[in-house]
């Protein structure tokens, strides 16, 4: 097969179907009709000799062959886009660019206030959207340039990515002021006896907390499990539950929720909070500017 045999627009449809998995959503994004999307997919199927996508109750699921094409096609389209839209420099003061940054709810609490304050000063027309940095989907989103940067603890993003450390972070115990443990101190025995709220935070590296506690041979009484950190301050404020959380999050909750911290009696490895970007955006001027702004604001 020669390149002249393929309409570039067919690859754009293919890439969007990989991302959104629904013909209606792709039609809406590309501004064309659903029959046109179906026609494009049928043309690709004939050209490539594969079904590419199978219709299921969960949407259009890619075949194994389509999955092997996903990364090279996404990379090629991104390279073409960046080349056609490349500028020799980025002018933050006049830019109206919309960036997408992946981070957890902790990241939104810790990073966004300072980032938005800085943008108001130096890039008033720039906007930011955040998405969750779940590693199972984030890799594909960054490969396809749907996410510009990721910030946080993401040990699974390695091959094909650059990263730069912002700071190291330790875990602490978090609880309400006046908690019985505040006076007695949190020994290993007291830690084991206390009732805990455990934060699952799937797709991030925070699962290492449970692993470290288990390896230490410490049993703890988990009374509540939640999928994210956003409600933890509210929960601890009115109960005797305790939580093991990153220090950066703890610092942002002490005053608003009347909480206190103590060193964790279980040895939990420090984590590295990084800023990450895909190799395809390594030299893109706007991406370079934003990640330097984040680094200058938060690096320790």
TrEMBL record:
Q: Which Gene3D superfamilies match?
A: Periplasmic binding protein-like II, Winged helix-like DNA-binding domain superfamily/Winged helix DNA-binding domain
Q: Which GO terms describe its molecular function?
A: DNA binding; DNA-binding transcription factor activity
Keyword annotations: DNA-binding, Transcription, Transcription regulation
Every HTH lysR-type domain range: 6-63
Q: Which InterPro entries match?
A: LysR-type_TF, LysR_HTH_N, LysR_subst-bd, WH-like_DNA-bd_sf, WH_DNA-bd_sf
Does the record bear Ribonucleoprotein in its keywords? no
User: Is the keyword Glycoprotein in the record?
Assistant: no
> Can you tell me which family this protein belongs to?
Belongs to the LysR transcriptional regulatory family.
Can you say what this protein is called? Answer: LysR family transcriptional regulator
* Species in which this protein is naturally found: Paraburkholderia fungorum
Taxonomic lineage of this organism? Bacteria, Pseudomonadati, Pseudomonadota, Betaproteobacteria, Burkholderiales
